[in-house]
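Running low. Invent one:
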Amino acid sequence: MKRTKIVKLLKTGRAVDRVLIKGWVRTRRDSKGFSFIEVNDGSCLKNMQVIADQHLSNSKDIKKLSTGSAVAITGTMVESRGGGQKWEIQADTIKIISLAPDNYPLQKKRHTDEFLRTIAHLRPRTNKYGAAFRIRSELAFAVHKFFRDRGFKYIHSPIITGSDCEGAGELFRVTTFDLLNVPVKEGGADFTHDFFGTEANLTVSGQLAAEMFALSLGDVYTFGPTFRAENSNTRRHAAEFWMVEPEMAFCDLQGNMDLGEEMIKYLSTYIMQESAEDLELFARFVDKQLMSTLDNIASSEFIRLPYVEAVDILNKSKRTFEYDIAFGKELQSEHERYLTERHFKKPVIIYDYPREIKPFYMRLNDDNTTVAAMDVLVPSIGEIIGGSQREERLDVLEARMDETGLPKDDYWWYLDARRYGTVEHSGFGLGFERLLMLVTGITNIRDVIPFPRTPKSIDF
């Protein structure tokens, strides 16, 4: 008999003869003549109640079932006579696949997030984290659907790279060197003897590769892992995280902002429709304002204003911020949240940032002071998208690289894109984990990644 997932059974809305489910025991309680077993297979938030009659051939073993044990159950799904669930399964057979010992870490009680991070391999079996990672799966599908429906091509950008997109230098090095016997030359390690013959790192962005394909295929996107060796142990940072990065040829900053707004609205609406049951858990137990926040994002026209006006609003707010704000300084999370949650009470797109605080590839505006950059800010999170129109003028791009100290020889291929058929183009990066924090109300990035990578932590 073929196994049926619990989520499918619950959606049938009718009694079903002869079904087979497999899953893990959440609870078991015994009554006179029966055992009531709650089983979950991970396909949905709800458990399936199973009624095990004492006349089953292995009824004595069934009464040994503990939380975490794995079972295979055949029987008939019928309307439940008791409260708490609409359907239940009258078991014909219960096969015990494995018995969990008494020290199984996930007992029937609430566990703290801090404790569950220490058993990240088991936490998806809890209601909260099972729901979080089902939402993550659904959102990943929605990202691909959004772009496919709009004619974008999906490309796989390299994870190992010799280029530093952001110019930050916070990179993880990739090497095959014996670290106890590194070839050296004057000034440091001699990477000509390494695998690639030059210094190589894990990527911080797929953008540069996406640009090359946008200038060939038109509209493209990359969606994959990126890495930042920033020694920051905060709730917003992780060493490995996922980025969604579209890139569009023949697109200026205005078109870039349009796509960013459209994408955030689409994904917010999609997840409210497709993951309503899982979202309800977070709205009840994690963030009471979650649904109103998502409704606001999905239905609002995003405010758009230049960086200089945002700075002026912040300075006139008469609020005391931890970080001072003035023209030429980066906006911090507290500034972004004030604009979205207090001042405008809706999402905000800020554009035209000072050139000195943005990377070399952003298009220089006619004022020679700002670049055509934009950030999308949303309530409860702050920045969720960062992007720009790219500098397509070869001479200006080379001057910016000289200004920021980047060696042009290492980016010869990137400069070629400006030599041969250059056009205006733009794109952005969306932090996938920040999107998940937005739609679940979870406030720590470690809790929306299956196995988080943070300073001094690489378990699992």
Notes: Residues 313 and 343 are 9 Å apart (CA to CA). The domain at 123-168+204-447 is CATH 3.30.930.10 (BirA Bifunctional Protein; domain 2).
